[in-house]
Amino acid sequence: MAEDLNWAVGGEAGDGIDSTGKIFAQALARAGRHVFTSKDFASRIRGGYTAYKIRTSVEEVQSVVDRLDILVALTQRTIDENLDELHEGSAIIYDGERSWEAEIPDEMTAVDVPLKSLAEDAGGAIMRNIVALGAACEITDFDVEYLDEALEKRFGGKGSQIVENNKEAARLGQEYVAENYDLEHLGYSVETTDNDYVLLNGNEAIGMGAIAAGCRFYAGYPITPATSIMEYLTGRIEDYGGHVVQAEDELSAINMALGGARAGARSMTATSGAGIDLMTETFGLVATSETPLVIADVQRSGPSTGMPTKQEQGDLNMALYGGHGEVPRFVITPTSITECFWKTVEAFNLAEKYQTPVFLVSDLAMSVTEQTFPPEAFDMDDVEIDRGKLVDDDEVDEWLDAQGHFRAHAVTDDGVSPRAIPGTVDGAHMSTGLEHDELGRRTEDQDERVQQVDKRYRKVETAQEEEDWDYREFGDEDADNLIISWGSNEGALVEALDYLEDDGIDVRVISVPYIFPRPDLSEEIEAADDVIVVECNATGQFADLIEHDVLTRVKRINKYTGVRFKADELAEQITEQLSAEVPAQ
Amino acid sequence: MSSDVRFTDFKSDKQPTWCPGCGDFGTMNGMMKALAETGNDPDNTFVVAGIGCSGKIGTYMHSYALHGVHGRALPVATGVKMARPDIEVMAAGGDGDGYSIGAGHFVHAVRRNVDMSYVVMDNRIYGLTKGQASPTSRSDFETSTTPEGPKQPPVNPLALALASGASFIAQSFASDALRHQEIIQEAIEHDGFGFVNVFSPCVTFNDVDTYDYFRDNLVDLQDEGHDPNDYEAAKEVILDSDKEYQGVMYQDENSVPYHEKHGVTEDMSEIPDGAPEDAMDLVREFY
């Protein structure tokens, strides 16, 4: 297992916790180290405990662990909240000059730094967090110059004086610790490499994937934790001729996106559970009008308003079954931040190839987690665009009926009809949520009804045959123990393999990025002695699907505390489950 | 765009199922004539319709069209126009669709000032569900769900539009064919959101707001010498609950449509075969 360092900064919301953490994460990435971040935050603007955690190593890290080595504590609560993760070798940086007296357990190393005074010496109290970053550099023997680049990136727009002041603040923090403490016995040092990494989160990857895939129109309504997709696209999509509209509500957002898509633009909306409820009204229309649309659901804790700033994977059934009547749709679940990018690209292609709504189901853990990757992980040369059966002026003719009407919903062998967008000569046609004939005109004719329903489902059959509904695999392919997972649990599972290996337990991990259609896992399940399905919800929505597919019972690991799985915790639970009885039939 | 487009080119071969005498026939004829007269053809026109008798209008017209979900015509039309500033966009619906379930969207579409026209067939009743009170029904109008009348004032859609910052507000009468067509034409030609409330009588369920009632009571603002660019005069006419008016009540001469304000000019349906050439810049931003 990699020698990793776990660092955190915590305080009250509004203390600049997020930007402080991000600056340190960027400095570590610039130093060629891998970084995996996680955030604790409350659903409020100011006040309330907030923390930004970084796990860093020269090897790839893709999970959080139950250990904290260096903690920058701006409040007592920061220390209290993290007591479980602190250990004898932990160093806690705090400001002893502040009105509170830090209660730090005896066995840990208290590093009292006058953060505020030193920040004032550098030009302003606001930089006290940067002083703390300098102090952290000294404790970890990390060259403070790596911070400089991150500070330039962060404050460059505010002028060189601000940048210089921040650099000075960092150095004052570093020098203070060097002069007043001898911390070599803690043994922290962070190795650097020559690698260049990019640092980004899942929502940024979805936004980037959307632009790469040719998405030009986005309509959305702000909601945690999906908003940052809209924020990413705003200010960037315009560079590519696109536009973002902040709609008045989610109903409007999905209908605007639907309008954009019918006009021929690759269009998208994104929201989270509560917003998906409102958008559900329009799913059926998107599907029956055969409109290509990507709908991202960045899941958070439900039901109702639930815990808006906490992790969960509880919307799977909603994505699969939401909406009245029977509606074909694709459900894709990226399993990592790079997959957030690539599956978004794929979602747009599937939407247009099959003229169907595509759910892109992500979750809060991925949306707020930043991770380092080699830039080639997002190689734009590998982006392919498939617009399906989009017809131009010359191709329209083959799809006109005897009276010269365009058969926008033509019944075809593969279930996919030709698609004409406004401006295409002779392509004018009507589409509707009402049942319709080949021309899109409403009908209640029994034969036409059956033809259209069959046609829409035939698209799914075609897609099942033509596309790779594959899975990702880790661990020992021949192991008797099979773990199945979907969405963001993959990273923690991959790292849990190391812990299990140490205990002599061989495990095969299958990580599924497609829920509908999904890969047939019956052979893999039959070959295994023990099958455990891991997911962040209480009822095991994916486990239910697996049991339905293979007609056999599986074991389950469910977490619904609002916090994502940790690698070490998962390893423990897997070990426990392996010796447990399979639930009764 | 061909110059020989006739209004019948906008007609579908589907026979309307509206009741004989329904105001929506006249409303639709005016829309088709206005579209043809303003130089549009079915291949560059997108009509978005709501739900209800009025919502069927898209089915009886020939153009690119979407018949959507109750109350959501305006968001769909907004999406079409943003993606395709080159396309003529018209939204159509009824008083229930626009001022009840879709009232929120109406307010925001008006203030967004997207360049489209919006035609509301206002018959002051729910027709397709067989005669319940609508948001524009009179407060004493007896229906199956309001046996003693709604006992609440009707929505004044023109005032709602004015309060929301509308750049074009008009009202017409489906039966006054020429004036109706002229007013719709002005809405189409307006740079921004062209809103027209059309009195479109329901001959089956509304025996109060009838053709005769409007014929007898309608005042044409053109005859009154009303200046639509005069905001104060518009306010007076719009808030006057004693009279029924037709004509353009208000038009902001300086109206700049949403897409122009936001610099949207491109046809968004055109995208490269792969990622855009400079897309690696998006990745480098995360260094």
From TrEMBL, chain A:
| Span of domain Pyruvate flavodoxin/ferredoxin oxidoreductase pyrimidine binding | 209-454
Domain of life assignment: Archaea
Protein name (record): 2-oxoglutarate synthase subunit KorA
- The EC number on file is 1.2.7.3
SUPFAM superfamilies (UniProt xref): Pyruvate-ferredoxin oxidoreductase, PFOR, domain III (SSF53323), Thiamin diphosphate-binding fold (THDP-binding) (SSF52518), TK C-terminal domain-like (SSF52922)
What CDD domains is this protein classified in? TPP_PYR_PFOR_IOR-alpha_like (cd07034)
The answer, when asked if Ligase is one of the entry's keywords, is no
One of its GO biological process terms is:
response to oxidative stress
Start and end residues of each Pyruvate/ketoisovalerate oxidoreductase catalytic domain: 13-173
Q: How does it assemble?
A: Heterotetramer of the KorA, KorB, KorC and KorD subunits.
Its keywords, alphabetically, are: Oxidoreductase, Pyruvate
Gene Ontology molecular function, alphabetical = 2-oxoglutarate synthase activity
UniProtKB/TrEMBL annotation, chain B:
Cofactor or coenzyme needed: Mg(2+); thiamine diphosphate; [4Fe-4S] cluster
GO terms (molecular function) for this protein are: iron-sulfur cluster binding; metal ion binding; oxidoreductase activity, acting on the aldehyde or oxo group of donors, iron-sulfur protein as acceptor; thiamine pyrophosphate binding
In what residue span(s) does the Thiamine pyrophosphate enzyme TPP-binding domain sit? 51-198
Does the keyword field hold rRNA-binding? Answer: no
Q: Which domain of life is it from?
A: Archaea
Give yes or no: UniProt keyword Signal.
Answer: no
Every Pyruvate ferredoxin oxidoreductase beta subunit C-terminal domain range: 202-265
Composition skew (Polar residues), residue ranges? 131-147
Q: Which UniProt keywords apply?
A: Iron, Iron-sulfur, Magnesium, Metal-binding, Oxidoreductase, Pyruvate, Thiamine pyrophosphate
What Pfam families does UniProt report for this protein, alphabetically? PFO_beta_C, TPP_enzyme_C
InterPro entries xrefs: 2-oxoacid:Fd_oxidoreductase, OFOB, PFO_beta_C, THDP-binding, TPP_enzyme_TPP-bd
User: Which GO BP terms sit in this record?
Assistant: cellular respiration; organic acid metabolic process; sulfur compound biosynthetic process
Tell me the segments the record calls region Disordered: 130-153
SUPFAM superfamilies associated with the record: Thiamin diphosphate-binding fold (THDP-binding)
Which NCBIfam families is this protein grouped with? PorB_KorB
Instruction: Give the protein's recorded name.
Output: Pyruvate ferredoxin/flavodoxin oxidoreductase, beta subunit
User: To which species is this protein native?
Assistant: Haloterrigena turkmenica (strain ATCC 51198 / DSM 5511 / JCM 9101 / NCIMB 13204 / VKM B-1734 / 4k)
